[in-house]
């Protein structure tokens, strides 16, 4: 199911689910101007087609003591499959890494890392460079989160 196959009601349902997936089917139906059965059938179809993935809960990092958010820019001189496998395994198994992206341009990878403080970031960094050889790492501390959302523009 592609974006073009979603009709306006599907989009309204998706926006409601993104806003609060814990709301009742009855509430979603009322807010989108439909009844429960058609809304449930549409949700089931979108799940079956992969439009809707897993459901989860969003936690507040600061209330859990994860007050430091670093964006880590990684440059490497290594591009062979063995290095990449080790790097990806290291990144994917570290709970501090919230996001990881391979980039085009001068920077090879960017990581979003959540930790309690600079000392915890250093521990993360030391573990990462023990796992793989990295040419250059630049860590940028986020001073203020201006916008963060999980809501996609459907």
Description:
The chain has 154 residues and is of the alpha+beta class. It has two domains: 7-48, Orthogonal Bundle (Arc Repressor Mutant, subunit A); 62-141, Lrp/AsnC effector binding domain/regulation of amino acid metabolism (RAM) domain (Alpha-Beta Plaits, 2-Layer Sandwich). The chain is built from five helices and four strands. The chain has helices at 8-19, 25-32, 36-48, 81-93, 118-131; strands at residues 68-75, 97-102, 109-115, 136-141. It has a four-stranded antiparallel beta sheet. β2 (97-102) and β3 form a beta hairpin. α1 crosses α2 (25-32) and α2 crosses α3. The longest helix is centred in the C-terminal third of the chain and has 14 residues, at 118-131. The protein is elongated, with a radius of gyration of 20 Å. The two termini are 13 Å apart. 14% of the residues are buried. The model has no long low-confidence stretch (mean pLDDT 96).
Using only CA atoms, what is the Rg? Answer: 20 Å
How much of the sequence lies in strands comes to 15-25%
- Structural class, judged by helices and strands? alpha+beta
Low-confidence stretches are none
Query: What is the makeup of the main sheet?
Result: 4 strands, antiparallel
| Topology as a string of helices (H) and strands (E) | HHHEHEEHE
| Spatial gap, N to C terminus | 13 Å
- Assign the CATH architecture of the largest domain: 2-Layer Sandwich
Anisotropy-based shape = elongated
Q: Which percent range fits the helix content?
A: 25-40%
Mean pLDDT: 96
